[in-house]
Amino acid sequence: MSVLFTIILMAVIGGFIGAMTNYIAIRMLFRPYNAIYLFKKRLPFTPGLIPKRRDELAEHIGKVVVSHLLTEDAIRARLLDSTLQKEVTETISHMFHEKMTLETTPNELLETIGYTNAEVRSIDWLRSKLEKELNHFFDKNQSKRVSDLIPSTLEAELREKLPHVTERITTKMAGFIASEDGKNQIKQMLQNFFADHGKMGSMARMFINTDTFSEKIQQEGLNLLSQDDTKSLLNGLLTTEWQNFEAKELQELLPGESQPQLTKQLTAEILQAIPYEKLFNQPVQVMLRNYETVITEKIIPFTVERLLDFVAKHSSEMVERLNLANLVETQIATFSLPEIEKLVIEISGRELKMITYLGGVLGGFIGIVQGVLAIWI
């Protein structure tokens, strides 16, 4: 009985020593957190292994992450993966459809980013900008001729349009003369002519039938306007007037004293033409509703594909700029030692316990062997 008790006792003692040895070894990976001094001499194994080599460990983890985990090739391959593109596209499309069910005005959107009273502020900004640019334009080009301010392509196009303008003028004039209003106007002009010439006019009226004469003038006027010579003459007059207009300097057309008033008038006309009420108070969803299908089926997939492709092509530059190794090292360095210990135990707690148990089993086995050897030797 004493032999069996001795072997069991040796096994228990060996197991306890083995388990405690492994437990202490595991704890010494983290503990103590700081060095312990005795008579100004640092005790061996203080601080623990991880606290002692924490900076070196953080640096090596950062290098391993960049060299073997988040490599440029791995990032590029992931970004160009069709599955990722599909997932991102579906996510953005889902978000877009959710937003389309709302009614959000541009004013409300701008308020979310801190730009309040957007409509009034935008009008004020645009008014100030337009007045500044117009004043700058007038001041800079006062001595320039109109022909220098008009683009050559626009000038050529305007010259080509002059015959069309002539044709339109003659057509309008002929239409008016041939109308009843035109006939009455001619008749009134004749009556005024006779009235302005006193007795000679009264005498002429006795021999001239106003209605007949006005019809004759009306017919002659229509014949005159239909002649090519008349059109050529009118076209020449328009061309001459246009050339004279182009030859004038801007300051002749716009004297300095009238510039501020013109600037304000032009600015007011431009601002009046802009539908601010609709732009800022109509829900964005209303403006996009007609394009919802195009946006979800074409624009979003195209944008996602181009964006991921751009990021993939510049991944090496981005990785370099992000300096991921230093980022990982810095993040690990910010962890407190208790946090690191807790993190490691949470991840490997079961394995660490098994190591402790294994130490107990091996210690118990060694204790049995020692007990047997002690009895038989």
Automatic annotation (TrEMBL):
<dbReference type="InterPro" id="IPR007383">
    <property type="entry name" value="DUF445"/>
</dbReference>
<dbReference type="InterPro" id="IPR016991">
    <property type="entry name" value="UCP032178"/>
</dbReference>
<keyword id="KW-1003">Cell membrane</keyword>
<feature type="transmembrane region" description="Helical">
    <location>
        <begin position="355"/>
        <end position="376"/>
    </location>
</feature>
<keyword id="KW-1133">Transmembrane helix</keyword>
<protein>
    <submittedName>
        <fullName>YheB</fullName>
    </submittedName>
</protein>
<keyword id="KW-0472">Membrane</keyword>
<feature type="transmembrane region" description="Helical">
    <location>
        <begin position="6"/>
        <end position="30"/>
    </location>
</feature>
<keyword id="KW-0812">Transmembrane</keyword>
<dbReference type="Pfam" id="PF04286">
    <property type="entry name" value="DUF445"/>
</dbReference>
<comment type="similarity">
    <text>Belongs to the UPF0754 family.</text>
</comment>
<dbReference type="GO" id="GO:0005886">
    <property type="term" value="C:plasma membrane"/>
</dbReference>
